[in-house]
Design a protein that fits this description.
The complex is a heterodimer of chains A (about 120) and B (about 240).
Chain A: H1 3-20, E1 26-34, H2 41-51, E2 61-67, E3 70-73, E4 78-81, E5 101-103, E6 107-114
Parallel strand pairs in A: 1-2
Antiparallel strand pairs in A: 1-6, 3-4, 3-5
Helix pairs in contact in A: 1-2
Chain B: E1 7-9, E2 24-31, H1 34-46, E3 51-57, H2 63-74, E4 80-86, H3 91-99, E5 103-107, H4 116-123, E6 133-137, E7 154-160, H5 167-170, H6 172-176, E8 180-184, H7 196-206, E9 212-214, H8 223-238
Parallel strand pairs in B: 3-6, 3-7, 4-5, 4-6, 7-8, 8-9
Helix pairs in contact in B: 1-4, 2-3
The chains are: A alpha+beta (about 120), B alpha/beta (about 240).
């Protein structure tokens, strides 16, 4: 349950960017959450509901884009999508585990909608 | 009770498209870890004079036992301090303290990992300038601590023979990011049917090239190579 701390960071980043643009209200925060980031989107949404009061994002929507985990298999020289959320990266073609994770750890604020 | 949050599951990223009529789009492209990573960088600067280890493992694999013995054996000529993270109790800090090192307990409550800021506050209670080695014992958890940089020099992932040889395959990130892997409780490996080859193979597959130290913190077997590694890395950091 570290989502609350992440949400505080998220609102800080959003307010900073919105102020820089001279905006008054944040209408939406768009985040990208990787499948292996350890972040549970439902917990993020729950934490956001508690943390947004009194901020520029007090009425904002939270838009979560899930980024699937993709690893690279050195044996097959190809990328594959992990079929689980636990980080087990077994190549579906040759059954070799891969440590070369190319995508899936993201925890980013991508963009905002402001007014 | 907080208001329910309006959410929408957008499976395809709508980069740059405003859903709300009349709203403007502002690009941010920043990690939620920005704050932690900033504090970790400040920690790293403050840790300039000493070697800092971040020890991660499952609960019960012997982090505290490893630290007790390491502290006892290093304390003869090196100044060692320990920061211990646990959900509750200061039992571990008391054990470390009894072994002869100053220790600071961080009680995380419900938080499943240590963050850079918790470590920054904890080390305020230590004389960093007088230290050679600082060990941070993370909360017992193979998932969450992987995401949080604390400002350490070395991340050490500990695995014990009672846990099953495929742990590295099940939790590859925490093994992949490790600078060293310690396999503890080798004294009871046979009794618990630990398959050494499979475990080493699993580490090598997930984290190729990472040094592995097989030891027993209880009997002391294998401790020499581990302690020599710590001393080497300290010497290397100090140039």
């Amino acid at each position: 349950m570290h989502e609350f701390g992440l949400v505080i960071s998220m609102i800080d980043l959003a307010e900073e960017a919105a102020r820089k643009e001279g905006a008054d209200v944040i209408e939406a925060i768009h985040v990208e959450i990787g499948a292996l980031s350890g972040v549970v989107p439902e917990a993020l949404e729950f934490a956001f509901g508690g943390a947004r009061a009194g901020t520029m994002a007090a009425t904002a929507r939270l838009e979560v884009t899930y980024i699937p985990a993709i690893a690279y298999c050195a044996t097959c020289q190809s990328e594959f999508e992990l079929d689980n959320r636990f980080g087990i990266a077994m190549c579906p073609t040759c059954d070799t585990p891969s440590a070369d994770l190319r995508q899936g750890r993201e925890m980013h604020v991508s963009h905002l909608e402001v007014a | 009770m907080a208001d329910p949050v309006a959410t929408r599951d957008v499976r395809v990223s709508p980069h740059g498209t405003a859903v709300t009529p009349g709203a403007r789009v502002v690009q941010v492209q920043k990690s939620l870890m920005t704050h932690n990573d900033g504090v970790a960088a400040a920690n790293r600067a403050a840790f300039e004079g000493c070697l800092v280890l971040n020890i991660v493992s499952s609960p019960g694999s012997g982090k505290t036992a490893l630290l007790e013995r390491s502290v006892r054996e290093l304390a003869g000529d090196l100044r060692v301090a320990v920061v211990v993270g646990d959900l509750e109790t200061d039992n571990d800090a008391i054990r470390i303290h009894a072994a002869g090192a100053p220790s600071v307990q961080i009680v995380t409550g419900t938080v499943c990992h240590l963050e850079a800021e918790m470590v920054a506050r904890a080390v305020d209670q230590l004389d960093l300038a007088g230290l050679d080695v600082l060990v941070i014992e993370n909360v017992g958890n193979l998932v969450c601590p992987a995401s949080w940089d604390l400002g350490e020099d070395l991340r050490v992932t500990l695995l014990s023979t009672t846990e099953g040889e495929d742990k590295p395959l099940k939790y590859p990130r925490i093994f992949k990011d490790a600078d060293a892997v310690v396999i503890n409780k080798v004294d009871i490996a046979e009794a618990v049917g630990f398959d050494r080859e499979r475990a080493l193979d699993a580490v090598a597959k997930v984290s190729p090239g990472t040094p592995v130290f097989e030891l027993s913190a209880r009997t002391g077997e294998g401790m020499d190579a581990w302690l020599a590694f710590v001393r080497e890395r300290l010497a290397a950091k100090r140039g």
